[in-house]
Amino acid sequence: MKKKKKKRKVKTNRLHVYTPFGKSVIKDSLAYKGSFYLFVICKVLSVFITYYLWRAIFSSSDNSELGGFNQVEILTYVFMSFVCSNMVYISMTTKIGENVVDGSIAINLIKPISYKSKLFAESIGEMIYKFIVPSVFVWIGLEVYKYVILDEFSLSGIRIALFLLSSMLSFIIYFLFEFCFGMIAFYSTYVWGMEIIKNSVLSFLTGQIIPLTFFPDFAQKLFNYLPFSSMNYVPVMIYLGKISSSELIFSIERQILWILILELISIALWRRVVKRISILGG
Amino acid sequence: MIKVEGVSKEFVNAKKYPGLKGAVKGLFSNEKERKLAVNDISFEIADGEMVGYIGGNGAGKSTTIKMMTGIIVPTSGIIEVDGIVPYKNRMQNAQNIGVVFGQRTQLWWNLPLGETFTILKEIYKVNDKDFKKRMKFLNEVLDLGKFMNNTVRTLSLGQRMRADLAASLLHNPKTLYLDEPTIGLDLVVKDKIRNAIKEINAKYHSKVILTTHDLTDIEEICHRILIIDKGTIIYDGTLENIKDKYGKTRMISVDLHDISVVKKINFNKIFNVSKKDFNYQIDGKTVTFIINKDKVSVSAVLSNLMGKTDVKDIRIKETDIGDIVKQIYIAGI
Amino acid sequence: MRYYFKIYRLFFKQYLKSLMQSKLDFFIGLFGCLFVQASGILFLYLVFEQIPLLDGWSIKELAFIYGFSQIPKGIDHLFADYIWLLSSQMVTNGEFDRYLLRPIPPFFQLLCDRVQLDAVGELLVGGLLVYISVSNGTIRVTFIGSILFVMAILAGAVIYTSVKLFFAALAFWMTNSFPVLQLGYEISNFTKYPTSIYPKGIQFVSAFIVPFAFASFYPAEYFVRNESFITTIIAEVCVALIAWVIAFSVFKKGVSVYKSAGS
């Protein structure tokens, strides 16, 4: 009993070590308020533009449904995709690249904190900040619009909870994926090039640009074996109620499985990289 | 000739509040924070003069240099460098000046050093004959040959600083601004850089304005110094003058066989002086006396000691400019 | 003018040389740009699986508009990529100092500081799509048309550079204008489609506030549909000039309020 208590205390202490990293990210983001306001406005604008593109696509079609989506659903899809991806996609490749170049990763190795946990803490900070601005407002705006203008309301508490749960899992999957991807920075100095390749591939495979149901059947089958659909597509489809309750558990299980797999990969990669740092000195 | 007349520079920044709550608060407030970095300074620098510009961190040194080079615009006052207002006619002014910032290179990071000079030759319209002549000279005084083919990015700090200095001199500028040109360098390279600056001044008669934290730079290079503190110039004059004024302090270090005797002697009572004019510190077997030579003579101190114990070694040190500046920073002029 | 050409040539030669030393980086960047382009085309392809025409435009026509819009973008990317660094770090860390210490215009130095060969990706895809459009008859080649085509591309590149310069110059006030520039630039991703699909407000923004529509869709419309020469090509050139004047004035004003980092 006593032992258990002690263990718990150590754990809370350790958490305490990492919270400042998360907080400082939020603080930094708030520090430049001029760019901050514009950033939010422009970002939301770009979602609207995507939506209008979809509206034009629908009005050019004789069918009221495309790829299994009607117009209200695609509206929800586009905006909830933004709500989810905005807070979940926190890119770290550039940051890791900078840390490699300025040598702070090597310095971090001699500190009593884990580099990965530090990054995770920073990501959580960024996620919270991005959830507040503007994800949650876009979300509320969307539902208000649907209720007032379109007279549609199909939300339930359980679905919101499931969406948030699934989004959190997406966040972890994305974090681990980014961490693994960021390890490239140890092998190439040209992180920017890798970053745009990654982003353009990701934006497709996670269903951000276009719902995955628009892809041909063989591609959709392939996506089941990749972690990307678990990053954005799954939570949004859960929110839309397009995943039946029997599939639902399976989808969440698959997200957890991907977390485990990516965690193992990231541990293995990190070990290799640490070895490399200690040989080459960063 | 450089004329600086009643120049002030005020920076206006959005006010920042501490903590996470503060950051949120800052988002909605529009409060401004004003900081007067340079406050109504005036001075003149004649052709061929080498002037040391010193002051603590944040005293306004770099701000002054940046206004004189045309990087930033003064809030009020007038600056003229050889008849040109630097922040109004930047490009014309740039043709006549050379600038080295110790903290940051002015060179192109990804170019080989040799190519850097080829490009600078075109930019400053240096003709082939002058180019050859000057490169030969710069090579002699700064010893660039070994790393001429290396990319700037790969140079060591000392090499980079020599390269920066050479690059700033290629067009034979009438004015040379050196902002901490010896920061972080080892003694050999420091010496090389100092000698190069002196040689260039002697050969081309160019003005040199030097800011530094290393006061040996000042002692070796400059005849005249300006001291700035909290944005105001608190001293403008020769190095000798300030040494006379503040240089009355002597430091006598004595190695003793039995250090305990020092504590037994009440020097302040014997010489009838306060702690301000007579003080000492003990470090192992060495005692260091810090005395005002007008109040207490060096020989009196020593003769008092010699009767009591064996004296192994004696060293007497004049106060250097560093000690003086320290005194001024602390006590004011 | 010859003076500037000579200096630029010296820089350009160096970038080509350094490219030879880091071929891997070049290919990563090139593929990066090709991937971005490919995803845009894939999107069109997937959408046209569902519909025959988008707002009256066929996929062949859209492919031309898309390809055409990539060429000015690529030219700007090739020569004026360093503007991005002005927005993100040059003001924050005081790197801009060195531009003010040389007897050549700061904007020219900005161009000299990087030749971004990744842009070859955009130019390749753009060129290829235009070539396909010519060979499948979507576009007819005439002598005057070719001259106008070159003109439209150059004016388009000026629009791209101006928009970037304008947003980047805001960094002189905001210290970091990168997010704003990024999202302003984002609009260019939407003007590669017919702007008539967007509501009036967005059409207005993409034409007159961040005038990327004039660098892509409007001139492309002239070549595909023989729209009036005045409302497309001439209008584009005018917009390019105005955009440049505004952007450059803001940049100059910004330089004068530049604070320089440190004390």
Task: Give a verbal description of the structure.
The complex is a heterotrimer of chains A (282), B (333) and C (263). In chain A, helix 2 packs antiparallel against helix 3, helix 7 packs antiparallel against helix 10 and helix 7 packs parallel to helix 11. Chain A is globular. Chain A is built from 11 helices and no strands. Chain B has 333 residues and is of the alpha/beta class. Chain B has 2 domains: 242 residues, Rossmann fold; 84 residues, Alpha-Beta Plaits, CATH 3.30.70. Chain B has a 6-stranded mixed beta sheet, sandwiched between helices. In chain B, strand 8 and strand 9 form a beta hairpin. Chain C is mainly α. Helix content of chain C is 70%, strand content 0%. The chains are: A mainly alpha (282), B alpha/beta (333), C mainly alpha (263). Chains in contact: A-B, A-C, B-C.
The total of beta strands of chain B comes to 13
Adjacency order of strands in the biggest sheet of chain B: 5-6-7-3-8-9
List how many beta strands of chain A DSSP finds.
0
**Low-confidence stretches of chain A at least 5 residues in length (pLDDT < 50)?**
1-12
Task: Could you tell me the CATH topology label of the largest domain in chain B.
Answer: Rossmann fold
Classified by CATH, the class of the largest domain in chain B is Alpha Beta
Average pLDDT level of chain A: 84
Task: Provide keyphrases for this structure.
heterotrimer, A: 11 helices, disordered N terminus, B: 333 residues, alpha/beta, Rossmann fold, Alpha-Beta Plaits, 2 domains, 13 helices
